[in-house]
Specification:
The complex is a heterodimer of chains A (about 350) and B (about 290). Chain A contains 15 helices and five strands. Chain B has a single domain, classed as ABC transporter involved in vitamin B12 uptake, BtuC, CATH 1.10.3470. In chain B, the strands form two sheets. In chain B, strands 1-4 form a two-stranded antiparallel sheet. Chain B has a two-stranded antiparallel ribbon with strand order 2-3. In chain B, a hairpin with a 4-residue loop joins strand 2 and strand 3. Chain B has about 290 residues and is mainly alpha-helical. The chains are: A mainly alpha (about 350), B mainly alpha (about 290). Chains A and B meet through helix 5, helix 11, helix 13 and helix 14 of A and helix 4, helix 9 and helix 11 of B.
């Protein structure tokens, strides 16, 4: 007897996306086992997961909530620094496994909380204002971390916003966060398996959210805020929900990032505006609102520049042209006309028309 | 006390530069309802043009500034025609992403053309400094020219908008694009004109900025650009006096926090002020409240 399995369209699409990641993971693990990957490529495996998580989480804000966030790297930064701080504090006193699990939870929660805090005031704003405020937030976080000094001695924790000496620590005190020098000596707990698991978790969280009742409410707000409000959807609540989940997932990306490096610094190139833009490029190229697309685009865009090193100087230039080109191709009236004229479906329809005649 | 005054004057000078840049943002936002992220990078292009004109071509400063203005005006119009015009009816998210793309494009072209090395910009201003209060306060030539230039630009621009036909057309388009078109206003021409004026102002701001802070690299424009946008939002985006007030206030806040709180945290303070202003009065100090229609 054949067992009937009825899957909804949504479940099927989720399964395909998750399955794709799992298959890619298995293939890559086999390649690593067989020694077929260069050390350069092996070094890219964890960043691959980080960027995919970042892109998926940003897509939740940009594609599903329909608000542009330019401070996604800021949330990543929050997650990275809180978790690295935690791991460093408990480096000797906890086993690696539970410590990293807790670090992930703490990093994600801290980022989600900062998303909530920044979201409460900011989500009342619309569109361009939101973009600029999230950008401002990212810069504020980066600036504050660069002047933050935290140390620990027998008496407990010491803080300073000036320099390491003004913390007045005992001579055996240990500097944990050293201003612009950042955090040194975070245990290297990240690996490809954990990265892949977190990516799958991120995908499941985001895809389930999209296909749930709150997810539909969020998309209704995106499509028409006033109409959504008039049918009784609580705009602020759902916006905050999406925004803080997005921030929390970015924080998890940050946790992975922090535990993949031995020195963690908040520099413009890793947590600045450029990083936020790069992730936005992944989202735009993968398709705004298309979660699977974000994963694929981030994988391609992380691997491609490494494979074509000679093009490295032109990478950002190509990205910018891609951004402009994609937008014009998608939205300009002429491009729309062109696409309708030469669309695949239409060509097929024409062909069958001819055959029938 | 005298140090307070010199901080204040330097703040006003920096604020004047922000105000000139913010004008470009505010005018474009008022008319095209879009955030022209590339505006900051037009500043950078303008500075490079002046730098090259003075350095390689050996032109006198006045001609160099003029060249920068001409190049930026053309650049502004070109950007509008190629990147923004096809997207008039697109959602604001698409336009914003395009603008970010243009900003990145300009930065990276500059990076390839002029390399990432920071160049030392020679000031275009050769005025002697004014010394006040027994030498305790000196106002440099750059500061004098910047403040005066900002005031002149404000006056000329306000008169232009109030008194000329083109200015009135700008107001009409920013009020209601459709109605303006029906009344025979050339909407596309007006938008191009706005971009041209904004970009020309960006060139002037770029030269003034690099004269006061003489380092020039492909990223020179991006931070002042963002801060000037903050200034525009601060004063109420779409409002020309707002850009002036916002710019000056922002410059003073930034310089004061640099002087009295922490130089590393000054950016953070500026952005915090922005967030607070938007919370209390989302349309900025002089902005109009616009209610959304269904």
């Amino acid at each position: 007897m054949k067992k009937q399995i009825n899957l909804t369209k949504a479940t099927k699409s989720t399964l395909i996306t998750v399955g794709m990641v799992v298959v890619a993971y298995v293939i890559l693990q086999i390649l690593v086992g067989a020694g077929a990957l260069s050390s350069l490529m092996k070094g890219l495996l964890v960043p691959l997961c980080i960027y995919a998580i970042m892109a998926v989480s940003l897509n939740l804000t940009v594609g599903i909530l329909g608000e542009l966030s330019l401070g996604h790297a800021g949330f990543m930064c929050v997650g990275a620094f809180t978790s690295a701080f935690f791991s460093l504090c408990f480096k000797e006193t906890m086993a690696a496994g539970p410590r990293f699990l807790l670090a992930i939870i703490i990093g994600g929660a801290a980022a989600a909380l900062s998303g909530l805090l920044i979201g409460i005031p900011v989500l009342r704003l619309k569109g361009d204002y939101l973009a600029i405020v999230t950008l401002a937030f990212g810069e504020i976080i980066k600036n504050i971390i660069n002047v933050l000094y935290v140390g620990r001695d027998e008496a407990g924790f010491h803080f300073s916003m000036k320099d390491a000496f003004s913390m007045n620590m005992a001579s055996d005190g240990q500097v944990l966060i050293n201003g612009a020098q950042g955090i040194t000596g975070t245990p290297n707990d990240s690996n490809f398996t954990i990265g892949a698991i977190l990516l799958v978790l991120t995908l499941i969280i985001v895809l389930n959210l999209i296909h749930s009742r709150p997810g539909r409410a969020i998309m209704a707000i995106r499509d028409n805020r006033i109409a959504a409000e008039s049918v009784g959807i609580n705009i602020t609540q759902f916006k905050l929900l999406a925004f803080s989940i997005s921030a929390g997932l970015a924080g998890i990306g940050g946790v992975l990032y922090a535990h993949n490096l031995s020195i963690l610094q908040a520099q413009p190139k890793n947590f600045g505006y450029n990083m936020s833009i790069m992730i936005l490029v992944y989202v735009v190229l993968g398709g705004i609102g298309n979660i699977r697309g974000s994963v694929i685009a981030s994988v391609i865009l992380v691997l491609l520049p490494e494979l074509m090193r000679q093009l490295n100087d032109y990478r950002m230039l190509i990205y910018s042209v891609v951004l402009i080109g994609m937008m014009i191709f998608n939205w300009s009236p002429k491009a729309k006309e062109f696409r309708e004229k030469y669309s695949f479906k239409r060509l097929i329809a024409k062909k069958t028309e001819k055959e029938e005649a | 006390m005298s140090s307070f005054f010199s901080y204040l004057i330097n703040g006003i000078s920096l604020g004047s530069i922000y105000a000139i840049i913010a004008l470009g943002y505010t005018m474009v936002y008022g008319i095209a309802k879009m955030l022209n992220f590339a505006h900051g990078d037009v500043i950078m292009v303008g500075s490079y043009m002046a730098f090259l004109a003075m350095g390689s071509l050996g032109l006198p400063p006045v001609l160099a500034v003029l060249l920068a203005v001409v190049v930026c005006t053309i650049l502004g119009i070109t950007i509008e025609k190629i990147a923004y015009k096809p997207l008039r009816k697109a959602p604001s998210l698409a336009v914003l992403i395009t603008a970010i793309g243009v900003s990145y494009f300009l930065q990276n072209v500059a990076l390839l053309a002029f390399s990432a090395n920071t160049k030392m910009f020679t000031s275009v201003i050769k005025l002697p400094p004014i010394v006040l209060g027994d030498g305790s306060i000196t106002i440099s030539g750059e500061t004098q020219v910047t403040i005066v230039a900002c005031v002149i630009i404000m006056i000329v621009l306000t008169t232009f908008i109030k008194k000329t036909k083109a200015g009135q057309a700008m107001l009409a388009v920013s009020e209601d694009k459709g109605a303006a078109e029906l009344m025979g206003v050339n909407v596309n021409g007006t938008i191009s004109l706005t971009f041209a004026i904004g970009s020309a102002l960006a060139a002037i701001a770029g030269v003034l900025l690099c004269s006061a802070y003489p380092t020039l690299n492909p990223y020179t424009g991006s931070m002042p650009g963002i801060k000037a946008f903050v200034a525009a939002v601060f004063g109420g985006i779409g409002s020309i006096p707002g850009a002036f007030v916002g710019g000056i206030l922002l410059g003073v806040i930034e310089n004061m926090s640099k002087a009295y709180i922490s130089s590393q945290l000054s950016d953070a303070i500026v952005f915090t002020v922005l967030i607070i202003v938007l919370l209390v009065k989302p349309t900025g100090i002089l902005g109009k409240k616009i209610s959304e229609k269904v």
